[in-house]
Amino acid sequence: MKLRHYFIWLLWRDLSLAWRNRAGVGVGLIFFILVSSLFPLAINPEPNLLSAIGVAVIWVAILLANLLSLSQIFEADWRDGSLTQLLLLPLPQSLMIAVKVFAHWLTFGVPILLLSPLIALQYQLPESAYVPLLLGLLLGTPILSALGALTSALTLGLDRSGALLALLQLPLCVPILIFGCQAVLLVLGGGSAMPALWLLLVLLLGTWFFMPYVCLLAIKQLF
Fold first, then answer.
1. Which of these, 12, 71, 207, 211, has the minimum number of CB atoms within 10 Å of its CB?
2. Number of domains in the chain
3. SS3 sequence, 3-31?
4. Is the distance from CB of 211 to CB of 102 less than 8 angstroms?
5. H-type helices in 81-161, by residue range?
6. Predicted structure pTM score
7. What is the pLDDT of residues 27-86, one digit of tens each?
8. What angle do CA 107, 108, 113 make, to 5 degrees?
9. Whole-angstrom Cα distance, residue 14 to residue 134?
10. Which residues span the domain enclosing 121?
């Protein structure tokens, strides 16, 4: 079997498992919708105020919702022993890690991209804000998946690892939060979103280059 066949099989496997566990996957998305939708109801519905906080609320809600989805990357495969078998596949182990994280992004990041414009409508963001918002999410959500895989691998096998995972994950996400919000705020201020988007691109390339190897090193410590 050729390398690309293993790639496709592994991606299809993880997507199929996510579909079977769609209730668990959907929890993070429902959480994102609820959290981001409650703010307009709880504060003064003044358009300028809503547009001022809208981008930050969307990004913070995504960061928190992402925490609820991280266990699906490695945890289930670790518990049933599948992770050991996956490491024995005749393909680079780092590629196996990258495929699993890519599958997580497809099941979490892509729905977030589709839902975010609808959420942004509640905050009455101007039309000029939508493109930098979506570009920021397109670059930022894969970084969240990569960092989530890293923290998930580091806490794999620990009892009650959820709190520790959150403590490790959230500080790492601060730069993504800052640059993602700045991409929109710069446009709203009459500037260009490109500086913030370029920084997100650099972070994306850096995290996805190093993440598979660091995750693999952490996982191998369990055997």
1. 12
2. 1
3. HHHHHHHHHHHHHHHHHHCHHHHHHHHHH
4. no
5. 82-87, 93-122, 130-154
6. 0.92
7. 889 999 999 988 888 887 777 778 888 899 999 999 999 998 887 788 888 888 888 888
8. 110
9. 25
10. 3-220
